[in-house]
TrEMBL record:
Ranges of residues in domain Peptidase M1 membrane alanine aminopeptidase: 325-480
Domain of life: Bacteria
Transmembrane segments: none
Basic and acidic residues bias spans: 600-610
Name of the molecule in the record: M1 family metallopeptidase
Polar residues: compositionally biased ranges: 583-598
InterPro entries per the UniProt record, alphabetical: M1_LTA4H (IPR034015), Peptidase_M1_dom (IPR014782), Peptidase_M4/M1_CTD_sf (IPR027268)
Native organism: Reichenbachiella carrageenanivorans
Pfam families the UniProt entry points to: Peptidase_M1 (PF01433)
């Protein structure tokens, strides 16, 4: 039961500096954990002291914990989902189903106390429900103390032991973790292999492990205590919403300063094409200022690139990546995961609901950065070409689902991947087209600086984009995010009339957009036209020499205008020459073209501007 109150209060975190919160309160955590790792058995025991700050206006009568390691057991929801979905992740497949007793993962809770009093709890797969001995009142805190023991699963997905490159321990989602509670309630999602959502807080973690291991972890190393057989590494991290670590006897550690106040630390095995890791350093030094100029300042003092896991996965101040790659692939996965420091680690959206604001935004800037690093002709207009191609394939195959679908509940992995990475990235490309590059760049920085450390949602992002551009954009988000409708415009006809040449356009897809139209004359002269969409209540800034036309009302499937040029003087007519608009069929955007014979439904005797 939850007693709800008025939202939108600005609250001061206990023991922390107040952060201005536009229309949002949020919970806070402080973890202090000590674990003793038995590397031979792949098991560890742990204690956890968790201070939970209820900054909400609600009274809480229960809390929830995530027990992620429990997913790596035959019959778990992750196992069943992977074996029944039509296109399973090849890294998972039926591997969980075949894990032996010494290969599965688990968390066993030995005791749990709330402010010194034992509490009742029940475990259902990866979620533990705790019935509190006393409710947590608004603006108060409680302390939970737990003893637990865990087994590290054979590496299947993200976390685990002995990955395919021989890394002993990739320790992600490794501890009992309190679920997030926000303005819409609890988010205690079962773990079936997708994304995460957690409250911010501070972590103080001590890891005791055999002396031969080198440890890499979120945060800064505060203390290292060497004993006869084991070493304890104590790490601390402030204002993060997760903690990852990895350990391997063969790690080398390389520290590279990339700017004042920021070091990159690289951890990798010496047999992992080490020369490529060294070559990557110069690319990182070049990429960081490029990213910060567009996305905002990275707020932490360190970032760690750690060989481990099963591909690439983001965590606060760190990533786990596989290392057996070409140089470009190694740089690419590192840039992608580092960009998650903005689009998830600092902004902290609910990834299960707004995955496209995480993976999609990342994809856009990842591709832009790689274009900058590796393309001599930067900026390239087709840096999102692969995303467009994949989007087009999924849409035309009929597999697309709206981007309001919960991440765990897509019918296919392909549809989820397209929505989160590809269509999510194309969201930004379309917005850049809609509002203009200058307003778009300013809006992205404003979004980051306004909402960092505050869990923004889709509406928060939309509002920032509208404020910076001065345009009405709700229609775009309604169409693009909440439906599977598409954009498709065509040049329908170019014909000679008494006053000049008439250019007729038609909207074949359902999503309306403002249009850029380029007319190229046979002598090489180019005429640029911008046709606003009525729903935007304005238009993006015009380029030099660009001609503003009358607006196109969304209810009309057609539009025409006359230019004072003879038809035989026209070399071509093209819609969106920049190809930033995610048009489903670029082939019919240009005249002359064999596809220009387009039927215009409801065409009157004479087309007129709308």
């Amino acid at each position: 039961m939850v007693t709800r109150g008025i939202l939108g209060l600005s609250l001061i975190f206990f023991g922390f500096v107040a952060i201005a919160q536009p229309d949002r309160w949020q919970q806070r955590v402080a973890y202090k954990m000590e674990i003793d790792m038995d590397a031979e058995s792949n098991q560890f025991s742990g204690t956890q002291e968790l201070t939970y700050y209820n900054n909400s206006p609600d009274t809480l009568f229960k809390v929830y914990y995530h027990l992620y390691f429990n997913a790596f057991q035959p019959g778990s929801m992750m196992d069943v989902r992977s074996r029944t979905i039509s296109d399973p992740d090849k890294r998972v497949g039926d591997r969980i189903y075949h894990l032996g007793a010494d290969e599965i993962g688990y968390h066993k809770i030995n005791s749990l106390f709330q402010d010194g009093k034992p509490v009742d709890y029940s475990i259902d797969g990866t979620v533990m429900t705790v019935q509190l001995v006393a409710p947590i009142m608004p603006n108060t805190s409680v302390v939970f103390r737990m003893k637990f023991e865990s087994q590290v699963p054979l590496q299947v997905r993200r976390s685990g032991r002995d990955n395919k490159e021989g890394i002993r321990l990739s320790m992600a989602q490794w501890y009992p973790k309190l679920a997030e509670y926000d303005y819409s309630g609890w988010h205690a999602y079962d773990y079936v292999g997708r994304e995460f959502y957690s409250p911010w807080g501070d972590f103080d973690v001590s890891i005791k492990i055999d002396n031969e291991y080198v440890v890499a972890a979120t945060g800064l190393l505060k203390e290292e205590i060497n004993r006869k057989k084991k070493t304890t590494y104590r790490y601390a991290a402030e204002n993060v919403h997760d903690f990852v670590w990895a350990a391997d006897p063969d790690y080398v550690r390389k520290v590279v300063n990339v700017r004042d106040g920021l070091d990159f630390e690289f951890y990798y095995q010496t047999d992992t094409l080490a020369d490529r890791w060294v070559e990557m350093e110069d690319y990182i030094k070049k990429a960081v200022p490029f990213i910060e100029e567009r996305c905002g300042t990275y707020p932490y003092p360190v970032y760690k690139v750690i060989q481990g896991g099963d591909g690439g996965m983001e965590y606060p101040m760190a990533t786990l990546i596989t290392g057996h790659r070409s140089l470009k692939s190694l740089v690419g996965v590192t840039i992608h995961e580092f960009l998650h420091s903005w689009y998830q680690m600092v902004l902290g959206t609910n990834e299960s609901l707004y995955y496209w604001m995480d993976e999609g935004f990342n994809t856009y800037y990842d591709n832009l950065t790689m274009d900058y690093l590796f393309n001599e002709k930067y900026p390239s207009k087709d840096f999102m070409k692969s995303s467009y191609k994949y989007y087009n394939q999924i849409v035309t195959s009929g597999l697309e689902e709206p981007m309001t679908t919960h991440a765990d509940h897509f019918e296919t992995n392909k549809a989820y991947s397209m929505a989160s990475y590809r269509k999510g990235g194309l969201t930004l490309q379309n917005l850049s087209y809609l509002v203009g590059s200058e307003a778009f760049d300013a809006a992205m920085l404003r979004y980051y600086n306004t909402w960092k450390f505050k869990h923004p949602n889709a509406t928060d992002f939309e509002v920032i984009m509208e404020k910076e551009s001065g345009l009405e954009l709700s229609w775009f988000f309604n169409y693009w995010i909440q439906s599977a409708k598409t954009i498709d415009y065509a040049v329908a006809d170019v014909s000679m009339e008494s006053k000049g040449t008439s250019i007729a356009l038609t909207r074949k897809g359902y999503i309306p957009m403002p249009l850029d139209v380029l007319v190229t004359l046979k002598g090489g002269e180019q005429l640029s036209y911008h046709i606003p969409l009525g729903m935007t209540r304005g238009h993006r800034p015009l380029a030099k020499g660009e001609i503003l036309m009358t607006e196109w009302k969304w209810v009309n499937p057609y539009y025409s205008f006359i230019i004072d040029v003879a038809k035989d003087q026209i070399e071509s007519v093209e819609i969106d020459p920049s190809q930033r608009m995610t048009d489903l069929d670029f082939q019919n955007n240009k005249y002359p073209n064999s596809n220009n014979e387009v039927e215009i439904q409801g065409k009157p005797e004479k087309l007129e501007n709308n």
